[in-house]
Every structure is written in structure tokens, then in C-alpha cells.
Amino acid sequence: MKKILITGGAGFIGSHVVRRFVTTYPDYEIVNLDKLTYAGNLENLRDIENQPNYKFVKGDIVDAAFINSLFETEAFDGVIHLAAESHVDRSITNPTEFVMTNVVGTVNLLNAARTYWKDNYGEKRFYHVSTDEVYGTLGEGTDMFTEETAYDPHSPYSASKASSDHFVRAYADTYKMDTVISNCSNNYGSYHFPEKLIPLSINNIKHNKPIPIYGKGENIRDWLWVEDHARAIDVIYHQAESGSTYNIGGHNEWKNIDLIKLLCKIMDRKLGRVEGESEKLITYVTDRAGHDLRYAIDASKLEKNLNWKPSLQFEEGLEKTVDWYLENEAWLNNVTSGNYQHYYEEQYTNR
Ligand SMILES: Cc1cn([C@H]2C[C@H](O)[C@@H](COP(=O)(O)OP(=O)(O)O[C@H]3O[C@H](C)C(=O)[C@H](O)[C@H]3O)O2)c(=O)[nH]c1=O
């Protein structure tokens, strides 16, 4: 039985990766390590929590002694590392937290792997799940980030992810560890904390609150359904060459304002509102500091080498996502109230 450590498995993308691995590979033991910050939620994994090949461990990757003892007791065959502070706006107000979790936390995991895997590096894989934001920003046009694009991070968040990518490559070169990195575009889907554009807007539209659009809403993101990302991670973990990097994206660029207008249309229909009613909630607010204009990712290496493709058209995926939030009212109410409330309110009222 292979034992795989998935860090950040109670978060948005992490929970989809955990679910996929637990259900697809009954002969693997999946250990989910999560600190359960505001963005980590065991409710995201209720449907698989009693599976015999799943185990949850609460802990912080910044705590090196704890990480070492976990590696000593568990004898992992591989790591898929997703634990990270991920919200760009929060990185602008509190950069140090991002350095600690994203950089120091990653180095702690690499050090533990180096110590406890040193006799059989070749059989154990360290997979770092990263972001396309490390590449910086593009102008409007048709050019895209490839795996060869030079790193040019702008926000404290993307600088911390770029740094952790560099550490992973440095450990591969220096200690000959088997590592892989993937850099993915914006994800959307179920279990997304409503601080991010799509779930925040769904929740605000539902409650007739303003939808905050930064600047003029002209910024462009490439959106990928989170379950397609989880499938890409599965394929890359199992098939990518040692030391490789793969970009993951949806070939699905949207200006924020166009995306929100589409979302408003879907929400009008789902909530039985007159068409155009939800759009009235659009409110232009102060722009994000250092706001990257455009991300567009060339995922052709992944498509050609490992035969992966996005499965869903965006309109269909967005509608599925809206349905999920409307059907899972208890989940949404929970993460916007009680202990979570100030995290949601902070994002929503900051602007
Ligand atoms: C929350 C919010 C955002 N925006 C704008 C800012 C961005 O241009 C776009 C998406 O913002 P969001 O914060 O949802 O996501 P990004 O800043 O693109 O970053 C996300 O995608 C990458 C790949 C990661 O790696 C990040 O971890 C992930 O958070 O909407 C608004 O206009 N209003 C809002 O209220």
C-alpha cells in the first residue's frame, strides 16, 4: 500500500485532490495534513472521511519539529503539497504570513523529505502545486505563459509561491530529489471560500449585496474547473518526468466584468429574477494594489505529453458551480458566519 501525504487537503483545491485520490486509488493510504485555517474546512470532505484509506492529521507545516516527527512515524511514499496561503488581497495586508506558510512551510517539508527519504530518493516523489501568478502579468493580446517563461512575480503571494518553486528545484538539483511542479491558472467550483471572485459574487448576488469589481473590471483571468485541475494533478503525479514542470490551464480567458455579467445572468435565471436585476449590484471599487492585468497559460505540454484536456465548457461549469452553492446553503452560511464571519466580511467590506 502506497502512503501519500497531501498537505492542505481541507482547502478548496486540496479537498478535490484528496477526494479524487481516496476514491480512485483504494490501494493508496491518503494522509491529509491541514492546519484548518479559515480556508480549510473538514466539511469539504464529509463524503469521504470514513473511507478506510483516508486519515486526517491537524498540523502546521511551519512547525519543523512536528513535520519531522510526522515523516518519521508515517513513512510516506510521496507528497503532494498544496498547503498555502492563497489569497492575493490578504498577502498585501499581511505578507509575512505568506512567507511563513508558503516559503518556510515548503522548505520544512523538503527538509523532512531530504532527511527521511535519503536512502531511496528515486522511489519517492515531491510534487509542489503552484500557480501561474509566478510568471507575472501579460498585456492584452494572444501571448501566453509557457513553462519557459521567466519568473516575474508581483504580489507578496506570487513572490512567496515563486520562492517555494525555486526551493523545490534547488532541492532537486542539490540533493537529487524526485520533484515535479505544476503552475495552474484560476480555479472555480465547489467548496471555494467566498473571498475569491466567483464564490464571493455568488453569495453577494444571492443576498442582494454589492458585487465589488476592482478597478474597471478589465483584468483577465484564465478559468479552470477545479476537478479538471485535480485530474491534472493525478496525471502529473503519476506520469511526469522527474524534475519537470507542467502548466495547467483552461484556454478560457475572461475579463472580470464579462465573467460577472455572465454570472449575474445565470443567477437571475436560477433565482427567478428579472434579467438584468443582479447586474445592478455591480459596484466598481478601488483597484487591487499592483493588480496583474492578464494571466493566460499555455497548457499544450500537458495536453500533448500526458494527454490531459479540460473537460467542461466554462458556461456549463459556471452553471454547475452556481447550482452547487445554491444547493449547499448550509455550507455557504457556515463559512460566512460564526468563526468564519470576519474573514468573509473582511474581504467583502475592505473595498
Ligand atoms: C475578490 C475579488 C477579486 N476581483 C478581481 C481580482 C482578479 O483580477 C480577479 C480574480 O480574483 P481572485 O482573488 O478570485 O483570484 P486571483 O487574484 O486571480 O488569484 C487566484 O488565482 C491564482 C491562479 C492563484 O494562485 C490564487 O491563489 C487565487 O486566489 O477578480 C474583483 O474584481 N473583486 C473581488 O471582490
Automatic annotation (TrEMBL):
Gene3D superfamilies: NAD(P)-binding Rossmann-like Domain, UDP-galactose 4-epimerase, domain 1. The keyword NAD applies. One of its GO terms (molecular function) is dTDP-glucose 4,6-dehydratase activity. InterPro entries: dTDP_Gluc_deHydtase, NAD(P)-bd_dom, NAD(P)-bd_dom_sf. It catalyses: dTDP-alpha-D-glucose = dTDP-4-dehydro-6-deoxy-alpha-D-glucose + H2O. Signal peptide: none annotated. SUPFAM superfamilies: NAD(P)-binding Rossmann-fold domains (SSF51735). It comes from the Bacteria. Keywords: Lyase, NAD. It is an enzyme of class 4 (lyase). Its cofactor is NAD(+). Its EC number is 4.2.1.46. Residues 5-321 form the NAD(P)-binding domain. PANTHER family: DTDP-D-GLUCOSE 4,6-DEHYDRATASE-RELATED. Belongs to the NAD(P)-dependent epimerase/dehydratase family. dTDP-glucose dehydratase subfamily. This is dTDP-glucose 4,6-dehydratase. It comes from Pseudopedobacter beijingensis.
